[in-house]
Amino acid sequence: MKSEQALPLILFVCTGNIFRSMAAEHALRAQLGRYSPYLVGSAGIEAKPQAVHPIVRARLIQKGIDPAKHVQRRLTAELIQDAALIIAMGYDHQMHIAQAFGRHAPLFNQVSSGSETPILDLHEALPEWERDLEAAKAYVESIVDHIWNATPTLMARLPQFFG
């Protein structure tokens, strides 16, 4: 049974909850503003204890978001149950949510632009990222920028999920 909430919860899901879903959570919360009609959260399907990478943190700070208080959390049945809309960052997250919890989760890019493309994690986009740290940094920054820039369109499309 769903717990009682005053506002619908939008939940972003990725692997570790320290990069993509966390950036999406903070971008949406910041751009919705103080009087948001939604609660916004994020979780990771693995969420092994680790800190937000300094590159992610710095890019969010440039956007006016301080992720210092972000609490990494693992995706649970309770979070799934409480969520009115679950948004997956990648295909693997989408499949995990369907298989483990029986819920459909559209991809971030589906909701924000109608594109059926995932937002890849660093190791998926650049398997040998450790050999080119500048390319890795540029990729991470581009993903945070993409999420930030796509958020207004995502916001405009949210009512179709709550109609």
From TrEMBL:
Q: Which organism is it from?
A: Nitrospira moscoviensis
What's the protein called, per UniProt?
A: Putative Low molecular weight protein-tyrosine-phosphatase
Q: Mind listing the UniProt keywords for this protein, alphabetically?
A: Hydrolase
- Which residues does the UniProt record annotate as the domain Phosphotyrosine protein phosphatase I? 8-157
Q: Tell me, what is one Gene Ontology molecular-function annotation carried by this entry? A: protein tyrosine phosphatase activity
Enzyme Commission number(s):
3.1.3.48
User: What InterPro entries does the record point to?
Assistant: Ptyr_pPase (IPR023485), Ptyr_pPase_sf (IPR036196)
Q: Which Pfam families match?
A: LMWPc (PF01451)
